[in-house]
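User: Can you help me understand a structure? I only have the sequence.
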Amino acid sequence: MNINKAITYSLLAHVRNSGKLIQGPVDVFIPLVKRTLYILNQRGVSKGENITEIKKIFDESYSIDIPIPVLSVILQKIAQETNKVDENGFHIYQDYSFWIKDYVFDEFEEQLQLSKREAETVQKYFEQFCKINNKVIKDKTSIFDFIDKNKSSLSKYLSNKVEQTKRDFTIEAQFVDFFKKIPVAYDFIKRVYLGSILSCYLEYQPENINTNIELVLDTNFIVSLLDLNTPESTHTCCKLIEVGAKQGYKFTVLIDTIEETQSLLRHKANNFDHVFLQSKINPEDIYNACVRRKLTATDLERIGDNLQSTLLAKGIYTLPNTTKYKNLAKVSSEFSALRNVRNSERAALHDAIALQYVKEKRGKRISEFEKVNCWFVHNSNSHESDFKGKDNNLMSGYQPETIKGDELLNVLWLSNPSITKNVVTEDVSEIGITSLVAFTLNESLPKTSVIKELEDNIQKYAIDEVSDSDIVLVSSRIVNRQLKNIQELNNLANLDTVAFVDRLKKEAEIQRKDELAQKEGITQLLNALQKESAALKNREIEYQNKIKSIESEESEKEEKRKSEIQRLTEKLKKEKSERLKLENKIIEEKREKYIARKIRKSKIKILVLLGICILIFLWSIIYPLYKSDWDVIKAGELAKSFKDNYVVSSLLSIISFIIGTVSAIYVLIFHNSSNNEAMKRGVKVPDDLKEIK
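Assistant: Let's start by predicting it. Here is the structure, written out as tokens:
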């Protein structure tokens, strides 16, 4: 990888961590494309016939190949954004031609320059580290190729691309491991790692992710989950369980895995006091976890006895009957392949059983990662290459049955947006780099059986001749790959014990001298690092201050804008209130007229009724006069006869009562102010005459 790509990866991580513009998977590339348009504009390019002209500058500037469809989507977003502010900013047309006018974008220019200085610093210290360790390197940027290695590993799941080349990255892994506690280098390395993962979005656009997934856990995963591996491995496995549980995943473990794990813990307990070299060479060895946690052989036995209940408490269920899968495994090609690389036939059969179970759960071979419903999840750096070697699916475009815990976590982080709530970018970088370093260093170690044989030979022939410190020095030479042919040393022990002891002492002395020489070089390197760290820190502070200044100016502008918006809002609110009052006043006048009209109609109805009653009453007086030819005396006699008539008398009484009642009602309702107001309130008005709220 050239240094330019490393800088690009660092910038991608910075964009992702800053949270700016990030809404979808490809949005992390928007600033890079904007800067490409700015570069074109600076070169005097204002229009083009096709966006391939933009792609060419993008690829040259960042050393990554952006697909045309992805570039098109990003350019459409940029056009929509810029044209909201300035119609003459940037346009892209249906035929993929484009037009740029006065396009300026320098938001991440300072960060780009800072990343460039950091990349050069890391490369310089890598060269010095190699020199101190007497390593000759042909490619000075191989440290960045090493970090990018994980992208190739993820590609086999995301885009079915398999890495064909085989390179030794031991010195690069040692460099990263050494610089873990030195922020000036390690922070940049983490950003490059994260950026390399983010670049996978150019090849992989996640959609319709399957959440009905079963994870079948391997022995080494269980051991890590029990905190009997490195703290980093335990963190990875616990994080995967945590994330998977929130996504609704199902966690299972074969009864064969339970038995294998218990057998492993019993074996470690039985040899607890007879192992020294293994733990010094392999940091993932259970004995190292025992030292760290101050566990005894009895503690290991207790952990093994309580294994099933411990896993159940973590939501991991045991599959008790695996006879069917065992029978299938015994005649499988996977079993034949694994027998050649495993330490025992039992271990090979166990993995083959798990693979058969996963195959049946899937039902068929699957090409797309997001459609996989079952995985055999392991956490073994030493067995990773075994799984790769046996899996023909990798070469045929299908998803493998196995996946490493940290790789699954990385792919989930990429493919499922909701995962990011539970897995922060710091976790992704830390977990991934730690696993990458561990795998690379373990890959170069001799087989466990060879180390065990060497330890047995030391116990037999050199325990009284070689000190513990010398054995530690020998183990360092093995770890650093300075002592490679361990089997030759074992053969020497069987042929000539004296020569064997002398060889151990000689190797220890060589390592002692090397470490003294390296100590001086490392001290100088650390002193230079401190100065460089201080300088970079000052530059970063300047950069952050500049950002704060810009943000402060933007904040002031935003406050002014908000203040103006508030003023206009208040003005609009006041005008609206005044308009509402006017409209309600007009409506009130109409409503009052409507109510008055309704009350007037009610008055008329009562007066008509009263008039009818009065006419009837007058008729009862006039009628006797009329019948008596207007003779009052005769009329009185006639009226008396009417009065004596029960029916007529009753009718006249009723009419009199009605007249009195109606008159009283009229007076009470229409000539009493409180009753009159109550009547007004009782009038039902139409909706268009009601007050507007």
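Now, to help you interpret it: Residues 497-627 form the longest helix (131 residues). The first strand starts at residue 47 and ends at 48. Let me know which part you'd like to focus on.
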